[in-house]
Design brief:
heterodimer, A: about 800 residues, Alpha-Beta Plaits, 6 domains, seven-stranded mixed beta sheet, 29 helices, 28 strands
């Protein structure tokens, strides 16, 4: 309905598709919402790239927020260029930019035609999944800075952070696993084919030449499987043994080794055909399982720290008043820096000039921007939201309040990897049982028929290798990861699922986690607004990009935009304009009423006056996620719940209502406090799931047994964690945890099945007459039925999730 | 029967050829991005051909 309404009364911007408010900007019959969008259209039109608009309807990125000139000046610095580019010869440089704005086919199209916009660009290629563009350009004709600017003017401002230069990132796609699988599969298939005469006893005595020829071919084909494809099992098993730890790879390596050894002996001595088909088949299936399990979501990065949040360059003001762009890592104590609107303060600094309104929501968890006056300290990580300010650096980037967290030892160790999965424990019991069977068989045959000892023992080890266990684990994990992805819970690796099934305590962060980022609850206080008044206010609020104005726009009912004159924005105070001959003012009480009302109130207020007459104010409070009460009460019956917030305690009463009095709640927690709180819980033998979103939670997320970062847009920055959960599916949390708990059930079930197969195999093996054809049939059947069982069970348990999924539209 | 010796050898060689082709395709990162090419192939060729002509002209000029 609303869309229809819009199209009747309003035109939308030809470039970005937003409502056109002022009808100032148009070229021919095309209307634009702002100067920025019009400029982009002009450039695209001039470069003959108008197919951009044919591929998708209004594909552009809104240009209301202008990018400051000189923002990319730091890209002229030779040192920075060197670190950013990937390849250079005497004429060309290759660079990869991350463009989070990329969203449609038109984006791909225009980004692959950059050469039309800047003739120095030779070629540009998009990787849409990673939202990256690789640009090859001639650096005699253009420069890195110009390329970045060219991208910016068409609306794709590259995201360049400190992280891009500080780590030596050679993110090469790992291809060795696929090659290993390919080779193992190839050899497996061919060995099987060449074993056919053996299976059907076709090789009669007169064809002895053919038989040996096939056997030797098989031997040759098995070499790459044994030495290349299976190498990781040997390496991992050996590493485990050296640390006196029997992992699942050790018995597998032993089984592969024995199978290969016995087969080589049989072929060379001419006594049999060996079990090379079974061996390469097992290796093939196990590698596929591993690949399936480790194939995580590649667009999400799980180990970002503050470096990918901080900008790369910052303007420094020299003694003579000139501005210069330098790399953030070169900032020194005493430097005077200039921070523009919407930029992040990179180091702890003292405010020197200008009006600072710092948004700390991401760094400390404070939900509302904080005003700072001159002489006050501004901590690194805050985002300036009201015009340009000048600051003097008091601490280097790596020493600041926020970044110190990363010096904590929690970030230096990789404790989670050390934890032993229950799969290794099972495999150990399995190995012991297996050895006792083998020894019993050996003792039995040494009494009855010593010639059969060797055959029986090796056959036992060949048939009953724990690869079925490995297969059930890897395929279960792989399928569960895939299903969890479907519900927008992206886990870092398979061990997270197991950790998740063991937790008993859940700790929530407040801002951005149980409240919704960028969303707020608004009420209006004052005389009731007439529809005309509301239309006036909405028109004014729509002019500004301030978060509070945006909230007001979304609160007021939709109305046609009116004619705006004399629009003025006073950074940090408010806005004013003449709309339909009415003079409107909107902003702080100081600005609107001319007096400062410093009452202690919850939420921030936006005062409005029309024709200098005060009409009332809007109260903007943070909004809790939908369904929070339900999810909290259902989680509460199963887990201990706690709240750990960096914000003040103003909402404590409300939270007590939801969480009940039993739940512990701590407010005004610094990042380190959060980390230590989790540590304390763990010392009391709690298994902690931490759910947070901001940089201030990074320590706690890392320390906890499972750290889940909530993100409303998975392309946005999220701190280092074990899993990323989309905010939309927050209400599914309980079911997701319970789903992870099924993992053990599924693995046990398929393990029991594989034990049954093992009994059949062992029955023949202990008697010392294991036919190669029998092994060759048993092996694939058991593998395939295990894979079917695990995928079937993990999909079966999904049913409950399916029923609860809030939005059924995607996937 | 001796023909089968040669036939098996030849078929294996052929299969190895395909294996090498597979390994090459993996190594040259052809599986790295499995989405963008599917969109790219739907774009109109007009501009690409123009571009080719332009680049051809350019290279001629520089020569």
């Amino acid at each position: 309905m609303r869309v229809k309404e819009k199209s009747e009364v309003n035109t939308t911007c030809y470039h970005c598709g937003e409502d056109v408010v002022e009808h100032h900007y148009h070229i021919e019959d095309k209307e634009f919402c702002c100067k920025g969008c019009q400029t982009v259209y002009e450039i695209i039109n001039k470069s003959d790239l108008c197919s951009y608009y044919d591929l998708e309807h209004s594909p552009g990125i809104n240009q209301k927020q202008e990018v400051r000139k000189g923002k990319f000046d730091f890209l002229d610095d030779v040192q920075i260029i060197k670190k950013l580019i990937h390849f250079q010869d005497d004429t060309h440089q290759h660079v990869i930019f991350y463009l989070p704005q990329m969203h449609c086919a038109s984006c791909i199209w225009i980004l692959e035609h950059l050469d039309k916009i800047d003739s120095g660009i030779i070629k540009s290629q998009v990787n849409f999944v990673k939202k990256e563009v690789t640009v090859i350009y001639n650096y005699h004709e253009t420069s890195l800075k110009k390329v970045a600017e060219a991208l910016t003017i068409i609306g794709y401002e590259p995201h360049i952070s400190l992280n891009d230069v500080s780590s030596s990132k050679i993110k090469k796609h790992d291809t060795t696993t696929i090659v290993k699988i390919g080779i193992a599969g190839f050899c497996f298939g061919n060995i099987m084919m060449l074993s056919f005469p053996e299976y059907f006893s076709l090789g009669k005595a007169d064809d002895i030449g053919l038989k040996t020829w096939f056997s030797y071919l098989n031997l040759a084909l098995s070499l790459p499987v044994f030495f290349y494809s299976a190498s990781e099992f040997f390496i991992s098993g050996y590493k485990g043994l050296r640390q006196k730890f029997l992992n699942i790879d050790a018995p597998i390596a032993l089984a592969v080794l024995i199978t290969f050894g016995r087969s080589v002996y049989e072929i060379l001595s001419g006594t049999g055909a060996g079990y090379l088909d079974s061996m390469s088949g097992i290796v093939f299936f196990m590698l596929i399982g591993r690949y399936f399990q480790n194939r995580t979501y590649q667009t999400i990065s799980f180990d970002r720290d503050f470096k990918s949040y901080f900008p790369l360059g910052v303007s420094v003001i020299n003694a003579n008043g000139t501005e210069k762009q330098i790399s953030v890592s070169e900032l020194k104590v005493g430097d005077r820096i200039k921070i523009h609107n919407d930029e992040i303060v990179p180091a702890d600094a003292i405010l020197f000039l200008g009006k600072a309104t710092i948004d700390y929501s991401f760094v400390t968890g404070e939900s509302l921007p904080v005003e700072k006056s001159i002489g006050e300290i501004v901590y690194a990580g805050g985002k300036q939201t009201s015009g340009a300010i000048e600051l003097e650096v008091v601490k280097e980037v790596s020493q600041s309040y926020l970044t110190q967290l990363w010096n904590n030892e929690t970030f230096k160790e990789n404790k989670k990897e050390v934890k032993v999965s229950f799969i290794h424990r099972i495999s150990r019991y399995f190995t012991y049982a297996l050895f006792s069977v083998a020894i019993t068989a050996a003792i039995y045959w040494s009494v009855n028929d010593p010639s059969k000892i060797w055959g029986a023992v090796t056959a036992v080890l060949i048939v009953a290798c724990p690869c079925a266990l490995l297969l059930s684990a890897t395929f279960t994990n792989g399928n569960m990861i895939r299903i969890l992805n479907k519900y927008k819970l992206y886990v870092k690796n398979a061990s997270v699922i197991e950790q998740m099934s063991e937790i008993d305590t859940i700790v929530f962060d407040k801002t951005g986690t149980i409240t919704e980022q960028g969303k707020s609850e608004i009420t209006f206080q004052g005389t009731e607004l007439s529809s005309y008044q509301s239309q006036l206010i909405r028109t004014l609020a729509n002019q500004s990009n301030h978060p509070l104005s945006k909230s007001v726009v979304s609160f007021l009912p939709f109305a046609k935009m009116l004619n705006v004159k004399n629009y003025k924005e006073f950074k940090g105070f408010g806005t004013s304009a003449i709309i339909n001959e009415h003079f409107l003012k909107m902003g702080s009480s100081e600005f609107v009423l001319g007096k400062d009302s410093h009452q202690l109130v919850s939420g921030s207020r936006v005062y409005v006056s029309i024709d200098e007459e005060f009409v009332g104010y809007f109260v903007v409070k943070n909004a809790y996620r939908e369904g929070l009460e339900n999810i909290v009460s259902s989680l509460g019956s199963q887990f201990e719940l706690k709240i750990l917030s960096g914000d003040n305690a103003s909402e404590e009463g409300f939270l007590k209502n939801i969480f009940g009095n039993k739940s512990e709640m701590l407010f005004e927690q610094k990042p380190e406090d959060k980390l230590n709180f989790i540590k304390r819980l763990q010392n009391h033998n709690k298994r902690v799931l931490m759910i947070g979103d901001g940089l201030n939670d990074a320590g706690a997320l890392k320390q906890s047994d499972v750290g889940i970062a909530i993100s409303d847009d998975t392309n946005n920055f999220s701190p280092a964690c074990d899993a990323v959960l989309s905010g939309k599916n927050f209400t599914l949390l309980k079911e997701l945890i319970n789903y992870c708990r099924r993992q053990k059930t599924i693995i046990f079930a398929s393990f029991v099945l594989s034990i049954l197969y093992n009994f059949v195999g062992l029955f023949f093996a202990v008697q010392g007459d294991l036919e190669p054809v029998f092994a060759a049939i048993l092996m694939p059947i058991s593998s395939i039925s295990i894979v079917l069982l695990t995928t079937g069970l993990s999909s079966f348990y999904e049913i409950k999730l399916k029923r609860l999924r809030p939005d059924k539209s995607h996937y | 029967m001796s023909a089968i010796f040669i036939m098996i050898g030849a078929s294996l060689l052929l299969a190895i050829g395909f294996l090498i082709a597979f390994i090459w395709s993996v190594r040259s990162n052809q599986y790295e991005d499995d989405y963008t090419p599917s969109v790219r192939m739907l774009f109109d060729n007009t501009t690409i051909q123009e571009k080719k002509q332009e680049t051809n002209n350019k290279t001629k000029k520089t020569k």
